[in-house]
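As described in the Methods, two query proteins were run sequentially through the folding procedure within a single session, without resetting any intermediate state between them. The first query and its resulting structure tokens are shown here.
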Amino acid sequence: MKTIIKNFLNTLPRATQERVFYNENLLNAWYVKFFSKKDTWLSSNKNSYKGKRLFLLATGPSLNNVDLTLLKDEYTMGVNGIYKISNDIGLNFFITVSSFYYKNNIKGINELRVDRCFIPKKLKKTFNLKSDVSYMNVIYPKYRIDNEFSKRTVPFDFSTHPDEYIYAGGTVIFLALQIAIYLGFKEIILLGLDHNYADLKNSSDKSYQSSNFDKSHFDSSYHSPNTDVHVDLDAMERGYELAKYHASKSKVNIINATENSKLNVFKKRRVMDYIRGDKC
């Protein structure tokens, strides 16, 4: 039946196809919004960090050039492999969402000791976490038609109510920004967001072998050998632009303090300026 429907849709004019798949995204988002329970911790902690600043750690190799122990007195949020160095920095928040990453890191994530973990609700039975956890109602992207259409729809939107639902697409940093802005952080300082994929060859399904990323992370064993890794640069940059727009509306300042970052969406500063307490 799915093949019959797909073949039929392929006979429709391009504009009609786009409208059908755009509405599919709307219906998917609507279903998650109206049939999922709120996370009570997030609901009760909206703007509870108002006026504070947050260091948001991605996993790029530039982290190896920063003395992260200087962040112990700061609010910190990390993603994916940051759990491996969480004790060094006194990590406050941890988030993971990737279907590719968690499978080989369940034990390490379970042992994590932070103030709060954020995990997709669909993985609730997968983990046995020692930290307190919020289970996110994630609206996952749907890839349809071709890359040009996906560029405009992945991620589909930015959630201002992540206690109810949160949008995924491109990078886990996008979800982290939705949560950080909701929690009220006035300033979000990005570290380890190298965004350097210059040598990556195009892949129609956005799937690559982990060997392509041996030097793309602070930890050379970040990915297990011979595993698939999903990378969608267009979705990453659309997500960052959405986050920048909503941060501006909320008067939140996002700064990219990553050394030699290739990402130019956010204002750039040196990380030591912030660790010393300078303001932008």
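Immediately afterward, the second query was submitted; its sequence and tokens are:
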Amino acid sequence: MKGPADNCSRPPIGQPIACFNRRRGKIPRGYIIIPSLCGQNKLKIYPFAFRGERVNVGEKLRVVCYNIHSGKDRWGRWRLDQMADLLEQLQADVIALQEVHQNSRYGYQADLLAERLHCTPIFAPAKQVSDGAYGNALLSRIPVLDSANMPLKTRGEPRSLLKNTLQYGRHLIDVWVTHCSLDRRSRGHQLRAIHREIRQHGARPLLIAGDFNTSTSPLSPLLQDCARESGTATATLVTIPRRIDYVYASAEWQVEHCRVIRQKISDHYPLFVTLTLSDS
């Protein structure tokens, strides 16, 4: 069984290679910029190269939301290879991940999964870990045009909202990824911030996926709760029968199918959703 040391044998595609002040110097070609923990005017650079396939509007868009628990199962055993196998079988176009490491101590997990799945990885650090970070990630088979990482207020472990714009056929769509706090007060602040972002969002079709750490559907009725729309609102936690992982869709989306994948290789089950968007 591979552990984190096996995941660090070479510099991965998404490893931060530089930290610089954006008022100085030039951004290297072929890299995407994600706000880091380095200060207001500093950014970390993550290598970027689109490796996916274009998905045409009218085809079903396959979305997965998955808290990978740092690549471990509920017993603390390393399961990143099995997670990659499962995600490969699901053939998702867009994968929203929480509890992802990008550091030499635990492995560059977003990059390893993206390489296996032939996706573009976008990593959004929430907190510093070892020589890298830990946070949310998006893996995409369709072109990613823009990304931003919005910090969310918390009294404990840092949290953030990763906001991405993707090219879906001739449409631009927004796909956001988040992980809210266990602490009820902090989670309330975070949800109010996300609600504000939704209300201020423009006309582009929107998807939001994440671990919200609450069994009360937190973004309804602002957005469609995909599991409720498909009549499959079942538990997403392995350890207790609670539903805390959600995929939400704006009104432009038609929810075709939603199911919880009952594979106990994390402490969460992945949520798999298929949707269509009219080409109008």
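The chain has four helices and 16 strands. We note this only descriptively and draw no conclusion about the first query from it.
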